[in-house]
Amino acid sequence: MYIKRRSGWEMPERLATPESVFLNRRALLGGVAGLAATSLVGVEGAFAAADPTSGLYPAARNEAYTLDRPLTAEKFSADYNNFYEFGTSKTVLPAANALKTRPWTLKIDGLVEKPFEIGIDDLVRKMTLEERLYRHRCVEAWSMSVPWTGFPLSKLVALAKPASGAKYLRMETFMDKSMAPGQRSFLYPWPYVEGLTMEEANNDLAFIATGIYGKPLANQFGAPIRLAVPWKYGFKSVKSIVKLSFVAERPKTFWEGLQASEYGFWANVNPAVSHPRWSQASERVLGTDQRVPTLIYNGYGEQVAGLYKGLENERLFV
Ligand SMILES: Nc1nc2c(c(=O)[nH]1)N[C@H]1C(S)=C(S)[C@@H](COP(=O)(O)O)O[C@H]1N2
Ligand SMILES: [Mo]
């Protein structure tokens, strides 16, 4: 196994993007109010990123969501990420410093009562933040367990007031080649798009994360707002969302566009259904040298198996 043990903050300053890494770390540690954008004039815009809602973290833990294994230490999960916008290696942390997360506007459109836009800080203040411990199982057969902070996706759906014709929720990541070098590659169908059925989106497990480890999301985790659907393979948990569209047709997702035979729309975790190129029976636990058996629906069958009654003809586990 290969886990890169050196975290961004252990990196000599000279190897990191000069101000950005340093200031980002200060902003995360500092409680932030003092680091408002105005105090950073001269840092060339990279830091409008101080988070005005950081005082809302850490949020109270919702004890209904428990784990059967220890939490993954931040030093492992924060430097082993999939975020193709910033490169295809697991070490995207330095590159993700270029992600500018303020101002950040979420657009709600499609089959809704009235399309609207909302700023991330207004949205976060409208919601009651809570912390949930969730497992995360990547299709590549590694896993982690992390404390997300955020709110149920169903609350955002309620805010959007979808029309009865809305059958799917389509979610889209930002598109900006100037920040995200990966998006300059023609090999990928940018922007990153994911989707859920309305029933899945309204399931209590579907969670919108704005924070992790008791702090606002660090960029590489998909700041400032990402999805966490722990019963599905990790690629469904789309990062850095800018648009939610309520639609009648099943959206074409990023990974389907790349390789539909290997990465489908449903992508529910199932140890008995192998990926065409590897087994899904077990998973490597980040930060340990252990492999553990993978569980059907990643252990969340009780909450979600019912969503798939009558859909047995679909490729539910790819
Ligand atoms: N926009 C976007 N979202 C994304 C990805 C990505 O490359 N781009 N990778 C996905 C994959 S494959 C996984 S496993 C998780 C990784 O989340 P983490 O880096 O926070 O562990 O994000 C998912 N969301
Ligand atoms: Mo993944």
TrEMBL record:
It comes from Methylobacterium bullatum. Part of the MsrPQ system that repairs oxidized periplasmic proteins containing methionine sulfoxide residues (Met-O), using respiratory chain electrons. Thus protects these proteins from oxidative-stress damage caused by reactive species of oxygen and chlorine generated by the host defense mechanisms. MsrPQ is essential for the maintenance of envelope integrity under bleach stress, rescuing a wide series of structurally unrelated periplasmic proteins from methionine oxidation. Keywords: Metal-binding, Molybdenum, Oxidoreductase, Signal. This is Protein-methionine-sulfoxide reductase catalytic subunit MsrP. Pfam families: Oxidored_molyb. Mo-molybdopterin binds at N81, Y84, E85, C138, T173, R226, S237, V238, K239. The keyword Signal applies. SUPFAM superfamilies: Oxidoreductase molybdopterin-binding domain (SSF56524). The keyword Oxidoreductase applies. InterPro entries: MsrP, OxRdtase_Mopterin-bd_dom, OxRdtase_Mopterin-bd_sf. Gene3D superfamilies: Oxidoreductase, molybdopterin-binding domain.
